[in-house]
Amino acid sequence: MSEPNSAASSPDERLAALGLTLPQVVAPLAAYVPAVRSGTTIYTAGQLPMADGQLLAAGKVGAEVGAAEAAALARTCALNALAAAASVAGGLSSIRRIVKLTGFVASAPDFTGQPQVVNGASELLLEIFGEAGRHARSAVGTAVLPLNSPVEVELIVEVRD
């Protein structure tokens, strides 16, 4: 994990320095919206590792999907969650801090590395937001996720007034 180069750089600049851009907000799979703002708090729906409308991998972590691959997928989930949050915040730089990340890992019965998988998402948030990206977190193992996704991430973020 690399810390941002300059405390003065914006989250948008840090994202660009990582060679990343915010993707289009992933369309909901059911009866919900990608993100909701209530006052200065935004709650995102769970985000899957989707790119260009396609799930990047399927299966259980510790069986069909390795832990390192799952961590990279969790990073994609976090990027999708940031896109959803930014869409109702008025842009990425309107996000003041990451409050909470919840990561779900579809796990083989004997897989216990959920924290390391969810680190893929946590580390991206630290790279983009620095100290404002340090967050509370849950890393939950589960039997199955939508579309047989290996991982899913949701965020709670605070935005500027």
List keywords for this structure.
disordered N terminus, 161 residues, 5-stranded mixed sheet, 7 strands, globular
Give a brief outline of the structure:
Helices cover 29% and strands 25% of the residues. The protein is of the alpha+beta class and 161 residues long.
Structure commentary:
The chain is of the alpha+beta class. It has a single domain, classed as RutC-like (60s Ribosomal Protein L30, Chain: A, 2-Layer Sandwich), CATH 3.30.1330. Helix content is 29%, strand content 25%. It has 3 helices and 7 strands. The protein has helices spanning 11-17, 67-89, 114-129; strands at residues 35-38, 41-44, 50-51, 54-55, 95-106, 136-142, 151-159. Strands 1-2-7-5-6 form a 5-stranded mixed sheet, covered by helices on one side. A two-stranded antiparallel ribbon has the order 3-4. Helix 3 links the parallel strand 5 (95-106) and strand 6 (136-142). Helix 2 (67-89) crosses helix 3. The longest helix is centred in the middle third of the chain and has 23 residues, at 67-89. The N and C termini lie far apart (30 Å). Mean pLDDT is 94; it is low at 1-6.
**CATH topology name:** 60s Ribosomal Protein L30, Chain: A
The tally of beta strands, per DSSP, is: 7
DSSP helix count?
3
User: What count of domains describes the coordinates?
Assistant: 1
Rg, Å, rounded:
15 Å
What are the secondary-structure elements, in order, as H or E?
HEEEEHEHEE
Q: Which structural class is indicated by helix and strand composition?
A: alpha+beta
User: Based on the structure given, which CATH architecture is correct?
Assistant: 2-Layer Sandwich
For the report, how would you describe the main beta sheet? 5 strands, mixed
Strand order of the largest sheet: 1-2-7-5-6
* N-to-C span: 30 Å
Low-confidence stretches: 1-6
In the CATH hierarchy, what is the class? Answer: Alpha Beta
- The helix fraction, in percent, is 25-40%
Mean pLDDT: 94
Relevant CATH superfamily: RutC-like
Molecular shape: globular
Q: Report the sheet-strand fraction.
A: 15-25%
